[in-house]
Write a structure and sequence with these properties.
- The structure holds two protein chains of two kinds.
- Chain A contains eleven helices and no strands.
- Chain A is mainly alpha-helical.
- Chain A has one domain: Orthogonal Bundle (MetI-like fold).
- The radius of gyration of chain A is 20 Å and the shape is globular.
- By secondary structure, chain B is α+β, with helices and mostly antiparallel strands.
- Chain B folds into two domains: about 220 residues, Rossmann fold (3-Layer(aba) Sandwich); about 120 residues, no CATH class.
- In chain B, a hairpin with a 4-residue loop joins β1 and β2.
- In chain B, α3 packs parallel to α5.
- Chain B is elongated, with a radius of gyration of 24 Å.
- Chain B starts with a strand and ends in a 9-residue tail after the last strand.
- The chains are: A mainly alpha, B alpha+beta.
- Chains A and B meet through α6 and α7 of A and α2 and β7 of B.
């Protein structure tokens, strides 16, 4: 039996790229949302968190509303050769939208518990705000940010609903692990479905083990 | 070296209005918690922004609402020692102090100044420790080292001893005072402790619910607080409403007595204060019969609560504090107060009228 490894490769690249995107976007919004006036913050917070509580298929529906081939934005982007529908990189869009709230919320929680006097004292010492952000705030919040990143990665890797709506399932082109599992199951290929389930399980386990290892190493470093 | 502050800020229900001028030496902002002391420091540092006002340090305008000047904290060069010291937890002692040297670009000079400061602050051998591994006193020295090495034009300390154990406090007070005096620049310190204010400062500004009430040399403030808030903050235990009777006489209706004073009584007197130490059984002046209520023992002193025989029911008892060795076997039936020991308090800020 020859195995087509495309779904693994495709899932990993979609998850990895979305994870990087969501990492920076999540931190950016978490940091700046805290500085906005309360009312604007409340509204923005709801919009940014919605994808977490909506069914992923609903997210996919909205994405199609915006990026669909008959929609203004979809037509506009096509002029530049960009097409999010039925392409593998459309999967990045779907996974990012669904994984974003996880990063945003955990990063925001971490930033909120950050001791603001550390930033103030850095400022009075003449340190630039960029330095304070990357060298003082981020390290102090690294636990929460790391947790958010891992959650976002895991969520992006397992994304099914929005992905299947937006990019469908084309073997060798848009197939991901989760859509493959469904397709194989639907076509009575139980062994194939089981195989991909195990692959997914293995990746998720490795990711979680890595995080636990990093955390315990960090704790040891603090104690030493 | 001089600092000029005149700031106003409306925080909704709390209005901060502080205007003062400070020069070389240690100035203390004394006030109860939540009176706006720390907020004032933050405005000077540029962390908080007043609604309007003017802040000037050594002729350089740091903030002016009319001229739309508001220097960022990075450009103010004002040292700020936070209550919790605000050491960067992810960095070692060495890295923390190097943060204060960020303006020094020359690498050898940087290293030399770092080593000098480590020696001066007795931090040698702790270079590679994280803040969490240090004692409170060491943390304070690292925070000070980080600030001093940055060469600020003035220094602000926010409750510098509140994070320390009591037994450490006294020895560090002397150490810190000597260090600040040798530093030779304007120092502004915030505290709610009258002892710290008395120990450390040459001048005290009294703040109460967002307003700066008065500013006086330390000894003078304790000798003559001038208003009720200042009297309370300097630790006066007996403060009671009083009326002027004559140029050297006041009436205290709640105690049912009239007292002779040494200082001339001005119009507008609202209260008098008598420190708990100042009652004296052997003084002939202002002598009245008393009855004793409670006795509370402290390590070296005794507090006796008493009432004057003619005292109005419902009014608080009077506090008398004496050394244990001087505690009489038989409590005296009458207590006197020297006229010089009566503090005259005027609550419509007398400084502006005189």
């Amino acid at each position: 039996m020859t195995i087509d490894w495309y779904p693994l490769w495709n899932s990993l690249r979609i998850a990895a790229i979305s994870c990087v995107l969501v990492f920076f976007l999540g931190i950016f919004f978490a940091y700046y949302a805290a500085k906005l006036p309360r009312l604007v913050k409340g509204v923005l917070d709801v919009i940014l968190t919605l994808p977490m509580v909506l069914p992923p298929t609903v997210c996919g529906y909205f994405l199609l509303l915006v990026f669909g081939m008959k929609r203004p934005l979809g037509i506009f982007l096509l002029q530049y050769g960009i097409k999010f529908v039925m392409t593998w990189y459309g999967g990045i869009l779907a996974a990012s939208v669904v994984a974003f709230p996880l990063m945003y919320r955990t990063a925001r929680g971490a930033f909120e518990s950050f001791d603001q006097t550390l930033a103030y004292s850095g400022q009075t010492l003449g340190l630039s705000n960029t330095y304070i952000f990357w060298r003082i705030r981020m390290p102090a919040c690294r636990q929460g940010i790391l947790a958010g990143t891992v959650l976002a990665f895991a969520r992006a890797l397992g994304e099914y609903g929005a992905t299947s709506m937006l990019i469908g399932y084309t073997p060798g082109r848009t197939a991901t692990i989760s859509t493959t599992v469904y397709q194989l199951w639907r076509t009575n290929d139980e062994a194939g479905a089981f195989f991909w389930v195990m692959v997914n399980l293995a990746i998720s386990t490795v990711v979680l083990l890595t995080v636990n290892m990093l955390e315990s190493r960090q704790k040891k470093a603090v104690k030493a | 070296m001089s600092l000029l502050v005149d700031i106003h800020r409306d925080l909704g229900g709390f209005v901060l209005d502080a205007a003062f001028e400070a020069e070389n030496g240690i100035t203390c902002l004394l006030g109860s918690s939540g009176c706006g002391k720390s907020f004032t420091l933050k405005c000077i540092a540029g962390i908080e922004k007043p609604d309007r006002g003017h802040i000037e340090l050594d002729g350089v305008v740091l903030f002016d609402s009319e001229k739309h000047i508001n220097l960022p904290p990075q450009k103010r060069q004002v040292g700020y020692l936070f209550q919790n010291y605000a050491l960067f937890p992810n960095m070692t002692v060495r890295q923390n102090i190097l943060c204060g040297l960020n303006r020094e670009k020359d690498r050898t000079a940087k290293e030399r100044r770092l080593q000098e400061m480590l020696r001066l602050m007795r931090l040698e051998g702790l270079e590679n420790h994280k803040p969490s591994q240090l004692s409170g006193g060491q943390q304070q020295r690292v925070a000070l080292a980080r600030i001093l090495v940055n060469d600020p034009r003035m220094l602000m300390l926010d409750e510098p001893f509140s994070a320390l154990d009591t037994h450490l406090r006294d020895s560090l007070k002397i150490e810190l005072r000597d260090m600040l005096l040798s530093y030779g620049r304007e120092v502004l310190m915030v505290t709610h402790s009258r002892d710290e204010a008395y120990n450390m400062s040459s001048r005290i500004a009294v703040m109460d619910s967002g307003r700066l009430l008065c500013m006086k040399p330390t000894k003078e403030l304790f000798a003559n607080p001038g208003n009720t808030s200042a009297a309370i903050l300097t630790g006066c235990k007996n403060i009671i409403a009083a009326k002027k009777l004559g140029p050297h006489e006041v009436e205290v209706p709640d105690w049912g007595i009239c007292l002779q004073t040494q200082e001339e009584v001005r119009d507008g007197l609202t209260a008098i204060g008598i420190r708990a130490h100042y009652f004296n059984p052997s003084t002939a002046r202002n002598r009245f019969p008393v009855t004793y209520l409670e006795e509370m023992e402290e390590p070296f002193e005794v507090i006796l609560q008493f009432r004057y025989t003619g005292q109005a029911p419902g009014s608080s008892p009077v506090w008398w504090r004496i050394n244990k060795e001087k505690r009489p076997q038989q409590f005296p039936a009458e207590l006197g107060i020297a006229p010089a020991n009566i503090l005259l308090l005027y609550d419509r800020a007398p400084e502006t009228t005189s």
